[in-house]
Amino acid sequence: MTWREQLNQGLGAFGLRIPDSLPLDQLAVKLTDNPCRNTAALVAVTSLLFYAAERGRNAKVKDIFDASIYCSTCLSVGYGDIFARTPLGKLIGTTLMTLGPALSNAALDGPAARRDTTQQEILQTLKQILGRLAEENVTTP
Question: What burial class does residue 14 get, using C-beta atoms within 10 Å of its C-beta: 0-12 exposed, 13-18 middle, 19+ buried?
Fold first, then answer.
């Protein structure tokens, strides 16, 4: 069973299905292209959806700001005094808790070019260290 089939099986409990034409792998790449903007958009959209799902059913969700607090905390620490009560609210929370930390990290980590340069510098330094250690082992009887 593929991961898409497994996900569809789990979403079936909510009466949902991932369309076969939805390219999830490409969507994941696009989310990290502009992580700050996409994180803000994700919080905004999920806040609206969460508010619509929980309004009138959850005493802790009195307005859109309560929904925003729930959605933004799901992206990071996952702690708060608001808990989803509806199936859709729980699905939104689960999605945010799964995608949120990686997306938040990408937003706060800085440009990929800077990370790549730093990683290359670290790699070169480690290679130099290994080279010196190898030279010492050869010259040491």
Answer: exposed
64/118 same-domain check: no
Pinpoint the alpha helices (H) of 1-141: 3-11, 24-33, 35-54, 64-75, 87-109, 112-139
- Name 134's Cβ contacts closer than 8 Å, sequence gap at least 6: none
CA atoms within 13 A on the CB side of 55: 11
| 90 shares a domain with 120 | no
What residue numbers bound the domain in which 41 lies? 3-109
Domain tally, the chain = 2
Sign of CA dihedral 110, 113, 119, 125: negative
Q: pLDDT tens string for the chain (141 positions)?
A: 776 777 777 777 777 777 777 776 677 667 667 778 888 888 999 999 999 999 999 999 999 999 999 999 988 776 778 999 998 899 899 889 888 888 888 777 766 656 677 888 899 999 999 998 888 877 666
Residue identified by tokens 């030279």 is 135
Based on the fold, state whether residues 102 and 42 are members of the same structural domain.
yes
